[in-house]
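Severity: low
Component: inverse-folding endpoint
Summary: output formatting inconsistent between runs
Steps to reproduce: submit the following structure tokens with default settings.
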């Protein structure tokens, strides 16, 4: 997260087209869906329509596409002919999954491409192409789910467009998996909109609303930490959480028993354990949680660990609200948080 005061500095640099900020930040423009360099000659957006990123990769993962005018990935002074050629090839068909023969077709050596991309953008070419593709898919999901808030009161039905976008994010099984570890990902329709569940044969690793901000980064992080291929499919823990979610939404279940694997620091895990001890129908605050852990001054770190939770609903980070009684934040959206809290209160009252 970029602090608010730094965003103001970046915005001013954007307005003044300050070239010394080249490579320091990129700006995503919410109204147009493109991201730019600070010196872009195009008309400058309003502050409230800007999202700032310190790497191009983050801008791509947030579904922004490179601006045609300032070409944030193809600055002529910084970038080789080969990198420019590949970036343009990706833009011609951003949903394409790159294979060896694509490099051959462009007469490009794949390992040179990997090295040059890594040096320029801090990611390999294949990672770049994947980031762009996932950004596209996630954007389509978000476009389709913008109406979720309005549907919360009437029940939710997902369209097949969501499923198509989902397979595009996760992709099909690689041709040769060899010894590689496998995680499987499933789409779960719930009362509050579609969720994605990722698990191996033993445990659940991730459960999130598909339109959650930053989901693509979370999935990338999971892929890296587990060194696993993520392919569509189901496993016993996924079947289990699907059953449990059905019961939870029907008000028949208050305690989840699906086995989980928590990937995080010892401190984060301690926070997540504490979260699981908050009974349904009750709420607490970060300060209170921190005090309960014997670390009353660590409430900011507690809040961060809360935000890093990758198992929505199951680890009930939605039960943490502000000390003053206000709802506070929620990665899945505040209307969902309110709904979950109301739902759990009702369950306890019955
Ligand atoms: Zn631009």
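Observed output (run 2 of 3):
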């Amino acid at each position: 997260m970029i602090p608010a005061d730094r965003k103001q500095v970046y915005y001013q640099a954007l307005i003044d087209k300050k070239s010394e900020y080249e490579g320091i930040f990129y700006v995503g423009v919410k109204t147009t869906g493109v991201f730019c360099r600070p010196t872009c000659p195009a008309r400058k957006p309003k502050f409230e329509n800007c999202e700032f990123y310190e790497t191009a990769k983050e801008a791509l993962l947030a579904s922004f596409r490179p601006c045609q005018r300032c070409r944030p990935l193809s600055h002529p002074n910084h970038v080789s002919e080969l990198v420019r050629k590949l970036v343009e090839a990706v833009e011609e068909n951003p949903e394409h999954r790159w294979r060896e023969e694509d490099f051959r077709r462009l007469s490009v050596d794949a390992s040179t491409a990997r090295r040059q991309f890594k040096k320029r953008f801090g990611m390999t070419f294949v990672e770049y192409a994947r980031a762009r593709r996932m950004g596209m898919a996630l954007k389509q999901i978000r476009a389709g789910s913008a109406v979720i808030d309005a549907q919360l009161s009437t029940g939710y039905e997902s369209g097949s467009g969501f499923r198509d976008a989902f397979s595009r994010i996760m992709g099909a099984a690689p041709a040769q998996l060899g010894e590689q570890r496998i995680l499987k990902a499933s789409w779960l329709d719930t009362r509050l909109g579609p969720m994605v569940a990722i698990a191996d044969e033993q445990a659940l690793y991730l459960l999130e609303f598909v339109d959650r901000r930053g989901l693509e980064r979370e999935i990338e992080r999971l892929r890296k930490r587990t060194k696993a291929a993520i392919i569509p499919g189901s496993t016993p823990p996924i079947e289990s959480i699907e059953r449990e979610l059905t019961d939870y939404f029907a008000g028949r279940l208050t305690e989840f028993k699906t086995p989980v694997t928590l990937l995080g620091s010892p401190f984060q895990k301690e926070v997540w354990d504490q979260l699981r001890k908050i009974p349904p129908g009750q709420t607490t605050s970060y300060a209170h949680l921190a005090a309960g852990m014997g670390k009353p001054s660590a409430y900011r770190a507690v809040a961060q660990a809360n935000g890093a939770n990758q198992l929505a609903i199951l680890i009930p980070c939605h039960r943490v609200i502000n000390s003053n009684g206000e709802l506070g934040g929620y990665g899945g959206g505040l209307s969902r948080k309110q709904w979950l809290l109301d739902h759990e209160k009702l369950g306890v009252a019955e």
